[in-house]
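Q: Could you fold this chain for me?
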Amino acid sequence: MAIQTRIFALLLSGVLYGLSFPSFPQIPTGLLSWVAFVPVLLATQHEHSLKKYLFFTLPVFVIGISIGFWWTAYYHWQALLVCLLTQVPLVYAPFLIHFLVKKRFGFHQSLFLLPFCVAFSEWALHFLPIHLQVHSLAYTQANAIWLIQFADFSGMWGITFWVMTMNVFVIMAIQKRKKINYFYPILWLSLPLVYSLWVIKIQPRSVLGSLNAKTKVSIVQTNVDSYQKQDTAFTQRIFNEIVSLADSAVRTAQPDLLVLPETALPIPLFQDQNLLDFTKKAIVSWQTSVAIGFVEYPDTTKKHLFKNNALVFTPQLATFWDSLKIKPQDVKVYQKEYGLPFMEFMPFQPDAPSLRGSSLVRGHTPYIFSYSNFNNDKFNVALTICWEQMYPQKMADLVNSGAEFIALMNNDAWFGTTPGAKQLLSFTRIRAIENRRGVVRCSNGGISCFIDPFGRVSGQLPWFTSTIGTQEVLCVSKKSFYTQHPNWFPIFCCGLLLLLIAINYRQSSH
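A: Sure. Below is the predicted structure, expressed as structure tokens.
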């Protein structure tokens, strides 16, 4: 194959791969990922030089990540550079393995093994502290909820496997040039569609159970510029804004729970007595539980260290705080466990300042908070904070601990109105489907909305607007297969991959 044809193939694959991520929710660009790797895999099928293979395949991921995630540069040009330098090798790893297997067993055998390799590699590498979590093939399908309902069985890793297998089937159909081979991609598309039809339209109780209660929840969305200097005037303005919006929500909707954004209080709640006293009085007056996010600084000698905390402050806790002589250390508080690498913490250096000059002190306990409504009905909610939505097992742990729905407290204002916040919202939809739990997504500046257990978005609030939104949220107690076994699919892929390699090795040795 001519070098010009190969270069065109790698450019085409890179562009298709980059555009397949959900930057434009109204356009089903995820379909592009079904064929994104077909050009480059066909163009390099007979390539046995590692140097040439790297030259014709590695740029695919540089191009793709640059197109799909240019919005990281909105925060700082360093962010995009870090993204490319650290993530390209991670997403490229299974394709390098594909080359080595191809040299030993041939193109078609290595092609058959590729989906297993990609699914397992994505899972195994996502545990690395340097992994940004956003470049998974699964996320190209995040807005195709009519297709990905099977994530409640396999998790996002099954979606990755499905996408890569579709590429393989298309290559097989092209190469064989027999009509019967088009049966496989059609069947591969039909299976998840049928399952989605079953669980969404025909028998939703099969995944949700029955007799599920509903709780009324209000989102309090502030209009905060994340780049503004957080001085006393800024803090006072935000505090006044939160109180005013919360007052309005209680007065007009009478919710069971108010949800505030990530670190809605940019000062330590329990270390400022005046703030604590005001908060208690407000919650007693509202008679509504409030999910509050706030920061703490645990070490005065290391001012860059911070804790990102959240709790559900109930009217009962506020009422009896003084009479029971409750101390801050007696209160159950959730501490953020996962932050954005390089921006919130430096990988492998927990105490070192990040590129933003701060360092997250990680928590490790998946707390579940209980609260009651005016009828004394009890509900269980898990609080999770911002980038933690990118860690699928984190969400599964929360649900396994008893969460009936998830309140996700966000700060997405770092990315303005770029596709960044849109992509993060779409990724949250997969978390809802995996665990069959509703997600209340509250962000400063947006995107704030409600997501049901099927990944459907409703009640989306306008960007960068101080406003509130209220809906009834379904509380589900039934656990999905994925929730109970979040790692089974990639481990299965690894086992089968090793078995198939062993069989091919034995056959090729005879």
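A (continued): The domain at 212-477 is CATH 3.60.110.10 (Nitrilase/N-carbamoyl-D-aminoacid amidohydrolase).
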